[in-house]
Structures are given as C-alpha cells and as structure tokens.
Amino acid sequence: MKQLLIVGLGGAIGSIARFLVSKLNLHWHFLSIPMGTLTVNVLGSLLIGFIAGVSARTEVISPSMRLFLMVGICGGFTTFSSFTNENLTLMQNGQFLSVLLYTGFSIFFGFLAVYLGYVASNL
C-alpha cells in the first residue's frame, strides 16, 4: 500500500507538471509540431536518465525515492521517459535488435492503435 501511495503522489505531481508544460502548445509553434508534448517527452527522458544514472552509481536516492521520482513523477509526466529508459537498458545489455524491434513496434503499433481508436470512436 505504501508503494501505491508513493507512486500515486508522484504521478499526480508529474501529471500536473505535464499539463502546465504542455500549455506551450498554445504559445510556441514550429512546423506544426506539438512543442509542449515534445518538450515533455525530452525533459522526462532527461530526468529519468539522470535519476537512473545517479541511482546506478550512488545510494543517494533510496528505493522509495526512486519509485516516487521515476515511476511516479516521470511516469505521470510522460511514459515516453520510461520507454527511452528501457531502450537505454537494452542497449547497455547489448540487445541492439531488441532496441530496434521495441522502438519500431512501439511506434508502428502506437500509431495503429491511435488510428483504430479514432476510427472506433466514429462508429
């Protein structure tokens, strides 16, 4: 139960932060790219990479704090950060084919799922 509360609190903070950062879409445009989402994805990836790196080299971040920061805040902020961190782990383990397949499948099936969900909403 403690872990659920830790993740839930972090997730709430991350979701609120994502909402605030995504407001950039309303004020900053570049080639019609959703800059708020792009910013969230890149910042989330940077943050989860930093936390993972510090956690791998030191014991400064406790397991509960790591859960709060990585799964809670970063997960609430963007699941893209988890995706990129998992790919980094695969690369560090020399599983390059898995990186290509995971990335390719995620993008392809993600687009397909969004499209099918959109189509289903119009039935």
Q: Output the radius of gyration.
A: 16 Å
Q: What structural class is derived from the secondary structure elements?
A: mainly alpha
What do the pLDDT scores average to? Answer: 87
**Total beta strand runs:** 0
Ranges where pLDDT stays below 50 over 5 or more residues in a row are none
What is the beta-strand fraction? under 5%
The termini sit apart by 40 Å
Largest sheet descriptor:
none
Oligomer: single chain
Q: Into which percent range does the helicity of residues fall? A: over 70%
Instruction: Work out the count of structural domains.
Output: 2
DSSP summary: helix tally: 6
* Shape estimate: globular
SSE pattern: HHHHHH
Written description of the protein model:
Na(+) binds at residues 75, 78. GO terms for molecular function: fluoride channel activity; metal ion binding. This is Fluoride-specific ion channel FluC. Belongs to the fluoride channel Fluc/FEX (TC 1.A.43) family. With 123 residues, this protein is an all-alpha fold. It starts with a helix and ends with a helix. It has 6 helices and no strands. It folds into 2 domains: 2-81, no CATH class; 93-123. The radius of gyration is 16 Å and the shape is globular. Helix 5 (79-92) runs antiparallel to helix 6 (96-121).
Task: List the SSEs and their pairings.
Elements: H1 2-22, H2 24-27, H3 35-57, H4 63-77, H5 79-92, H6 96-121
Helix pairs in contact: 1-4, 3-4, 3-5, 4-5, 5-6
Offer a concise description of the structure.
It is built from 6 helices and no strands.
